[in-house]
Design brief:
alpha+beta; six-stranded mixed sheet
Length: about 260
């Protein structure tokens, strides 16, 4: 079973890129973030034409939005709201093989890493705190789970191009990493990508639009993650970050797909 997560940065604008992903990699489940469209204008038919007739979406105009598209039936469709906002950042569904899949989009947090001066950063920190508390309460639930998405934190030293220079930049600050790690430990999540790739190896899933030549400068960050509950670790077969998608035309997303193959 192949599962892909991708911050698509507008699914209608980049549906052609998603179709390329499908043609080249044939995932069973696709989880998207930043779909940026209301449910009525989501390209449902285009996904059905590609074999993804089982769909769970939650969207809003111009911002946020998440989707789970599947070749396999989806049951127990649900979603959660955080920080008192209905802003389409978390949905979930069950697959026939017993997996509970969660698709999440964590707030980016703005540019200033100060929760007093920057309400967006305060929102991000509170969001992760609330996530950690919620997952801790579900810790005794033995159901096997997979959590994917743009979690907007690059937690490890080699998840960014320069640990030293990024310590004061939103996405890699010590307080974000602390909150992120607390959330991860709250449910004993296993980092499925780093399960295969050692922590001392550089690994990115996002490259800024601001770079004149993103590939040459290679100043990336690993913001997109796939976590699994410990019982699923032996079932992990492989993982890949599709870096080449950052150069797909026209108009690539600044994020690339992250994929696992799980038995």
């Amino acid at each position: 079973m192949k599962i892909v997560t991708w911050n698509i940065n507008s699914v209608r604008l980049r549906m052609g890129l998603v179709e390329r992903l499908i043609d080249e990699h044939k995932p069973d489940v696709i989880c998207l973030q930043e779909t940026k469209t209301v449910d009525e204008t989501f390209p449902r038919d285009a996904f059905i034409a590609k074999g993804y007739k089982h769909q769970h979406i939650a969207g809003m105009k111009s911002y946020n939005g998440v989707a789970i598209l599947s070749r396999l039936p989806l049951t127990n469709k649900g979603g959660e709201n955080w920080q008192g906002r209905e802003d389409c950042r978390h949905i979930s569904a069950d697959t026939p093989n017993g997996f509970e899949i969660h698709c999440c989009y964590v707030p980016a947090g703005g540019d200033i890493p100060d929760p007093v001066a920057n309400p967006k950063f305060a929102h991000k920190l509170g969001f992760m705190d609330e996530k950690a508390a919620w997952w801790k309460k579900r810790k005794d639930n033995t159901k096997q789970k997979i959590l994917v998405g743009d979690l907007n934190v690059a937690p490890l030293e080699h998840d960014v191009w320069s640990h030293k220079q990024m310590l004061g930049v939103v996405s890699h600050t010590p307080i974000e990493v602390e909150k992120f790690t607390k959330w991860q430990k709250a449910h004993n999540w296993v980092d499925a990508v780093r399960h295969f790739v050692p922590p001392e190896e550089k690994l990115y899933s996002w490259w800024s639009y601001r770079a004149a030549d993103w590939e040459a400068s290679n100043r990336g960050r690993r913001l997109d993650h796939i976590w699994v509950t410990p019982g699923l670790t032996p079932a992990l077969k492989s993982t890949s970050i599709l870096k080449e998608a950052r150069g797909w035309e026209p108009k690539p997303s600044d994020h690339v797909p992250v994929m696992i193959n799980i038995g």
